[in-house]
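Journal club side-thread
Mid-discussion, someone asked how the predicted structure for our own chain would compare to the paper's figures. Pasting it here so we can look after the session.
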Amino acid sequence: MEIHEIDEICFSEKWNQTFYESIKSDSKYKLIEYYEKDVRCGFVLVLNLFSESEIVRIAVIPEYRRRGIAEKLIKEVINYSKEAGYENIFLEVRSQNFQAKSLYIKSGFEECGIRKQYYKNPKDDAIIMVKRLI
């Protein structure tokens, strides 16, 4: 399964194949993929700017959820960001996505802000979270 296909399955606001193709040559982005038995079943996309990294997309296809894959992907981002010398990792999560927020808190992220009505389909606030690495 291609990255854009996973995106299409997992998100209501989809990013297209052209975008994912364009980031392959953009050094600001780091794409970490997760495979299980030769099946690409998840990924995390990280944007690196200055001394920070930001998780801009994390997805696991439904039939592979609840196996710890998202947690493994987050650990990969933390390790990558530490090795690269970044000071913080940021992310945004829907205010109503309690499972994801719980996972992020378990991984050491803290709430640091809110973007009102950030998401459109369905409408929801974005909770901004940060994990400080230094």
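Post-session note: The mean pLDDT is 96.
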